[in-house]
Amino acid sequence: DAPLSKSHLKSIRRRIDHCIKEEAKITRALFTASSSYVDVEKILQEQTMTDFPKMDLSSFIHFDDGLKNDIELFKKMKCFMALNVKGTMKLSENLTAVITKIISKAVQLQYSAFGRECNGVKKLNFSEIQTYKLLLEVLYTKFPDTNNKEISSVISRWFSGAKDRDGAYLDSTTKSSSTA
Asked: Domains of the chain: which residue ranges?
């Protein structure tokens, strides 16, 4: 019941300002997303994005090439991505929510974010494909204050961790400990 000090009131005000700014970001992202994805209902009814994840590299490359020329496929894919990122708040969770639904782990392992070499093997460059460019659009819409360097860093870490995802790390440590 002691009176509030001036510094305590300033602290409360900063906290309220921060909350308002965060909510404003979310609201702006929602408005931008809703105006960008007007065909959501139509796409959901058509259910044409059902052949995911792409299980092999050739079918994924064929699909990705289709995004360059087919505007309807492009719109559907953008909507598909937007719907899959809407429930996640962290950038890395957004990648997991989208990429794992589009390409299988076998295809993920053939890519690195920027085509770097890994264990003496040059991987394919994910940043050069249409799927990546579309994913960037969706992520920048959801996270307008995020910069390219931050997204690049998260995508690089995400692809470098692909081999350990889905329990593979446990499998590899179990194998190495059983052979020792």
From this structure: 1-36, 38-165
pLDDT tens digit string along 153-169? 999 999 998 888 765 54
Give the whole-angstrom CA distance, residue 137 versus residue 78: 8
What's the whole-model pTM score? 0.68
Q: Which stretches of 37-87 are DSSP H helices?
A: 40-46, 57-69, 71-85
The alpha carbon of 13 is separated from its chain's Cα centroid by a whole number of angstroms, namely 34
Residue carrying the six token digits 């005000």: 13
As beta bridge partners, residue 103 has: 54
**Which amino acid does the sequence have at 138?**
V
DSSP state of 163: G
Which stretches of the chain score pLDDT less than 50? 37, 169-177, 180
**In 10 A of CB 31, how many CB atoms?**
10
Rounded to whole angstroms, what are the CA distances from 80 to 7, 86, 122, 152, 177?
47, 10, 30, 22, 41
In whole angstroms, what is the distance from residue 124 CA to residue 116 CA?
Answer: 8
Write down the pLDDT at residue 57.
97
